[in-house]
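Design a sequence for this backbone.
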């Protein structure tokens, strides 16, 4: 008889909850299933909601029963404040993300990322299969807005971003292997997805990620890779930049010779996000626990003949919609995760976090722990990164020179 591995409510329950959340995000939330399947997918979504709450509660209580610590008090305080914001705004995404980040305390990060990658991969494959078999509706590109196909999701950017995140997780898992394979694969996959979705945001972050990996190799050769620690300043810099762009968007449009919000070129489209944010800021101002805003996607607005209400920038969404308390907690979680990555010399993970931070200028998924897996390193057991291939080669050359002398 072979010994059987015992299931851990704390660890396996957490990984099961993370898998459930990724499946929900990829296959259920905002996916345009055929009308005949809507009752089933709606019931399944409710079932998974209940399972997710049950698993996360079990994880917390199991850990708490082992002995209360300051971390449990901080967890309860942070989730309590975010619950107030979630109640006011009717948006639970940030609350769930913080729960996953805080409950990962002491769990092996390597196992978390492997579970994340498997769940994201199989969810995307099932979504593609559903599209190919006609189970999800096939959206037709809109020539006015230059949109591509969304693979059944609410917007092409959603599918493109999900693929980009999967590529980042794959690259992290093979971070000790040659970049000469990793970078071309990411570039090829990123370009293919761009051709299908016309998602400029996803294409830009893929290009930036590959450039950052190449730059990191150059810094490592010159023994200057500690320069990547400057990424830690990214959250504050990008938050301030987002607010500045929001307050000055109309002036920038005028300087470019465009009417505010006019045109659908890449630059005008990007700036229009900040114009929309400025309008929401004027209506709601800044509040401690945020404001309720009835967001309406472009597709919903076209179907209901209402005005679209969109707030894509992660940083402006935090400040305007979720409130100052949620912004402070998120800043703490981002800072904690990047601090852990620096202490453990996990520079590839830090680069990944930097790319997520950059994406936050245009998209919200940087705040979602079921996409931004780098955030899950804040309290988890993150191992000190092993030497890279280049460092091992460098040490071998040094040893050979010593032998010759």
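Sequence:
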């Amino acid at each position: 008889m072979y010994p059987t591995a015992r299931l851990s409510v704390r660890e396996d329950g957490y990984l099961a909850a993370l898998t459930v959340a990724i499946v929900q995000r990829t296959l259920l939330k905002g996916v345009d299933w055929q009308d005949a399947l809507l009752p089933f997918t709606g019931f399944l979504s409710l079932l998974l909601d209940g399972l997710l709450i049950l698993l996360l509660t079990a994880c917390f209580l199991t850990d708490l029963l082992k002995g209360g610590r300051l971390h449990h008090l901080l967890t309860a305080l942070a989730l309590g404040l975010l619950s107030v914001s979630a109640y006011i705004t009717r948006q639970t995404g940030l609350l769930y993300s913080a729960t996953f980040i805080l409950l990962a305390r002491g769990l092996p990060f390597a196992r978390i990322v492997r579970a994340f990658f498997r769940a994201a991969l199989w969810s995307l494959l099932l979504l593609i299969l559903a599209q190919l078999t006609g189970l999800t509706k096939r959206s037709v590109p809109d020539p006015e807005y230059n949109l591509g196909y969304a693979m059944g999701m609410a917007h092409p950017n959603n599918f493109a971003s999900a693929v980009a995140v999967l590529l980042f997780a794959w690259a992290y898992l093979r971070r000790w292997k040659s970049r000469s394979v990793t970078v071309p694969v990411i570039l090829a996959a990123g370009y293919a997805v761009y051709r299908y979705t016309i998602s400029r945001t996803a294409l830009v972050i893929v290009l930036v990620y590959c450039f950052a990996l190449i730059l990191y190799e150059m810094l490592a050769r010159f023994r200057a890779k500690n320069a990547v620690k400057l990424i830690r300043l990214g959250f504050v810099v990008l938050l301030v930049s987002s607010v500045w762009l929001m307050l000055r968007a109309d002036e920038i449009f005028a300087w470019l010779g465009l009417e505010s919000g006019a045109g659908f070129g890449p630059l005008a489209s990007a700036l229009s996000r900040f114009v929309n944010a400025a309008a929401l800021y004027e209506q709601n101002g800044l509040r401690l626990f945020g404001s309720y805003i009835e967001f309406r996607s472009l597709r919903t607005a076209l179907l209901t003949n209402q005005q679209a209400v969109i707030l894509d920038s992660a940083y402006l969404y935090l400040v305007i919609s979720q409130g100052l308390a949620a912004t402070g907690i998120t800043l703490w979680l981002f800072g904690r995760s990047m601090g852990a990555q620096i202490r453990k010399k996990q520079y590839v993970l830090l680069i990944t976090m930097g790319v997520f931070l950059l994406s936050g200028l245009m998209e919200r998924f940087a705040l979602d722990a079921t996409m931004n897996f780098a955030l899950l390193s804040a309290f988890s057991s993150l191992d000190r990164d092993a030497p890279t291939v280049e460092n091992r080669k460098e040490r071998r050359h040094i040893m050979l020179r010593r032998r010759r002398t």
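The chain has a mean pLDDT of 85.
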